[in-house]
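Hello,

Our lab assistant flagged a job as stuck in the queue for most of the afternoon. It eventually completed. Since we weren't sure the result was trustworthy after the delay, we are filing this so someone can double-check. Below is the sequence as submitted and the structure that was eventually returned. Let us know if re-running is recommended.
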Amino acid sequence: MSTRVASRPVGTVTRGTTNPNRLRRMDRWITAVHGAELRRAAEPVAVDLGYGAAPWTAVELLRRLRTAAPRTRVVGVEIEPARVAAALPYAREGLVFRHGGFEVPVPGRPSLIRAANVLRQYEEDEVGAVWERLCARLAPADPVSGSRGGLLVEGTCDEIGRRHVWVALGPEGPRTVTFATRLGSLDRPSDLAERLPKALIHRNIPGEPVHAFLRDFDRAWAAAAPYAAYGARQRWIRTVRLLKADWPVTDGPARWRQGEVTVAWGALAPRT
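-- returned structure --
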C-alpha cells in the first residue's frame, strides 16, 4: 500500500503584514469590474493568496464580493502553517483556509485570485513565472457565454490602503494596470510610484514607459490645478481626461471618481 506525500507549497513566507480594511480599494475595483464574471460562473471561487498573519482581508473579501455575486466562496491560502491555524476560527459558510502557495491548492479553476503584497519580496525576474503559473490556474475564457475567464489581481499597497497599484491578468496574461488612491493624501500622482508592483517598480527610470506615464500624469495634474478649487476629486477627473489624450485609459468617470485610473498593460509594460 503506497503512502501519498503532500507536495511542498510553492513560494516563500511573506512578512505577513496586514490590517483591517487595507485592501478596500482593490476589493471595490474587483467587485465593480469582475462582479459579472463571478455571477456568471457555475461555482464562483475566489482565492485570497497570501493573506498574512491575520485573516482580515479574506473575511472582508467574502463580504464585499457577495454584494455583487452572492454565491461566491472565498479560500484563504497561506504558505505559513501557523497562520492557517490562527485563521481557522474565522472560517464560516463560504470561507475556508488552506495551507499552500502559488500552486493554489483548491479544486477546479478559481474565478479570481487576489495576490496583494505577495510578490514585493521577490526578484523582478521571478514575477513572470509566478504570473504564468497563477494565470494557468484561472477559470478559462468561454467564447460561447462571452466569459473572459478568471482574473488574477496582483499588486502592492501601503500599510493602511491609501495608495495602491495593481496589475489585472486573465488566462491569456496581463491586461491592465490600475492606480488607486485616497485623493486627499496625494501631493502628485507620481507619489504612487513607491507602490508600483514588482514587475514595474524597478522600471520607473528614464526610457521606460511607466516612467513616461508618471511624468505625464504629474504634468496633467499640474495643468488641472485650477480644478482644485472644486476639490481633489474634480482635479483628479480633469487630470485623467487630459492624460487620456496620450495614454490608453480603459475606464471612465465612474471609476475616476473613486480615485482610480486604469491603463492598458501594453502601454506600461517594461521594455526588454
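-- support follow-up --
The delay was a queue issue, not a problem with the job. The result is valid. Residues 1-6 have pLDDT under 50 and may be disordered. Residues 24-40 form the longest helix (17 residues).
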